[in-house]
Amino acid sequence: MNKQRLVQKQYQNLSPQQIQFLSLLQTPIVSLEKRIEEELENNPALEEDEHEEINQPLYQKKEGINNFEENQIVEKNESLETYLINQLIDLNLEDDIKFLVKYLINSIDKNGFLNRDLYSISSDILINNNENVEEKKLNEALIILKSLEPIGIGSKNLQECLLIQLKKRFPNEEDAYNIILHHYSSFSNKNYEFIIKKIGLSKIELRKVYDLIAKLKPIPSAGFASQSNTTKYIYSDFTISTINNEIELQINKANTKPIKISNYYTSLLNETKDSKTKDFLSKKIEQANWFKEAIIKREHTLKIVMKAIIKLQEEYFFSGAESDLKPMKLSDISEMVNMDISTISRVSNSKYIETQFGTFKVKELFSEAYIKESGEVISTKEIKNKMKELIAIENKLSPLTDEQLTHELSKHEFNIARRTVSKYREILNIKTAKLRREI
Length: 439
Known about the structure:
four-stranded mixed beta sheet
């Protein structure tokens, strides 16, 4: 028989303003500018303060690149869609076929693949354009799409993309074509022994096949401009510098606009006698005041949290050496500043910190602790770095398994379990030994 019990629990109900503030706290500097612009547009009682100076960041950095190095792939100014459509001009296609090819172009994914079946696409055309299109016609359009540059565009997946490229660029390489066509899974999983036995190739011949396929382009859309046609930048939210043996913190504001309460609307509130107008103005001014104070509180909170992080990681910010990076959890900073862990998480999430030795996400400073047999407490980042070193110098003909990595790490006093090694390897986006193997 089930018994009923009354259990009393406490829940924290957040007000809409508290939720808005937490959202502001999590917003990185690059998105804060847009958020302020939206508030300026929506609330006439809030306006730009043209007399206050805007604090500019020291410099800009392209997304994902340290030390301001150029991207390896420079985006073309032209989008893939424009590039494909321009090729249709010289083909003198009938209007109905041209429409279908354009529809297929708009249906490809960000990699340049068309992974939807033609039946689904024909159904979409019927619903969106009230046109009943036979799959035969769509097939004709698909053949035209696949004939365009870049080679492989419109493929349903990577396997077909490689096959199309092999057929067009290397028509005489039958072994490579047959391996991708009939043994793609074994090829992807580097099951060399199976392929050699099945195809009857030598190791040298199979190595040539892998080298040949490495010359192909796995992502047809690579190199083309994104839809926005703009270069993405990272603006650091924080700048940390060392001056006269002192660490200095700067909270960057980028191009965020300084704001103030409109004098005109404040005067209008005091002068108007109409109750509805008074109520409207009062709410707008109250909202504007809250938003202005929330921006100030956001900066104050960021400063408190970052100063606590700097205090804990002082040696690291002086040296830049990861061996000086102390184990640090969200709860450690939470206790230091007497704030909720979720607040610390929001401050560190999606925000970048700029130092003399590189620019990186704030959350990368957080790591678990590991105690060595000697009693020394180190960051688990040291173990991960040692793993990367071991894998970098391993014999690629016979890469280190997770079991072997566990053994090698133990030689450096990192006595961790094999499952932990597997976990760290996955965090580092390092493939298994089988997939790291070369021939």
